[in-house]
Hints:
Blueprint: H1 16-24, E1 51-53, E2 59-64, E3 67-72, H2 75-87, E4 92-98, H3 99-102, H4 113-124, E5 128-134, H5 152-160, E6 165-167, E7 173-178, H6 193-208, E8 216-221, H7 254-266, H8 303-331, E9 338-345, E10 351-357, E11 360-362, H9 378-383
Parallel strand pairs: 1-4, 4-5, 5-8, 8-11
Antiparallel strand pairs: 2-3, 6-7, 9-10
Amino acid sequence: MSSSNISSGYSGSPPAAAQAAVADTISAPSIDCDSPPIEPSASGRQGCPVFVMLPLDTVWVVERDGRKVAILKRESALDAALNLLRKAGVEGVMVDVWWGICERAGPRVYDFSAYRRLFHKCAVFGLKVQAVMSFHAAGGNVGDTCKIPLPKWVLDIGEGNPDIFYTDKQMHRNKECLSLGCDEVPLFWGRSPVDMYRDFTDAFANQFDYLFGTVITEITVGLGPAGELRYPSYPEGDGRWRFPGVGEYQCCDKYMLADLRAAARAAGHPEWGHGGPHDAGHYNSRSWETGFFVSQGGNWQTEYGHFFLSWYSGLLVRHARRILGAAAEVLNKPGRPRMIKAVKELENGHVVYEFQPMVQLGAKLAGVHWWFKSRAHAAELTAGYYNTRDRDGY
């Protein structure tokens, strides 16, 4: 179908950004995206732009003619919802771009076809998109309404090497996402997790950079469970944790333990490198029930406590720098759309233009609020946030 079919059924003139985005599809793969009439909504209002999160299963995989294909689920209902959001004056939508769906067929075999249809719909409705590179599985967190696993070829590698997953002291493997301990280890058909995340983001950008800045305005990169920069210390989905338990440290895969041993030796205390604190309780302990988190005299305040918590949270920070750095490299590569960030006039009269990508780079942090009024902030500590009453970890 010709690209003009993207806007069929539109009543009135879409916003300039949407017009430009749809016009750009002339040089990009086109699709037929019939949509119901759109009624104008208030525009140019002051205030904070609102983005609405689409259902986790907006894009789904079904079997047709003996093969698996990605589709937009409940497409008529989706059209109606986008129309209502537009009339309500919503700025745009946020959607998960699932690793387990888009790279399901094998390493570097990407399928973004259903997302192309979704983004073109958003362009027609005048809605912007925040796309989340979701390198985790769905189904194990509060509010998850569906199950979307990691790519099967990744899970198959985990069957032979379960240490690619976060591991607690009971040696339970959490298959929601990969452990940061193996970030730079080439275990996946010659690639490391950082390589895989970079390649995925690059493939996404190659497909959709003609929509950057007009329709797609932000790319959020998943950094852990639920896409958040944290450890899976409170896994409610499988029943191990219930609110308001303190959670458990996730540092017992062989890659994290090797790093801990090296850090302990460097600190002059090799005895500190055998695992997490022995007195930190279990997932559903209360803070005062543990020797480590108790407010008065807890081991979180000792030299060992400071060493371990600094190491544990430090790994999380380095993980974020690696992944976000790789994503920034992809979004800044030559040929990507850019916009002017600043104009500087030099003393000799020359003008220097500074550019930045047309999309913002985003990340998610968890709102770990329980035990905040205690001194240790136990739930934050097990999640990887070294934030206590006496120390600002943010």
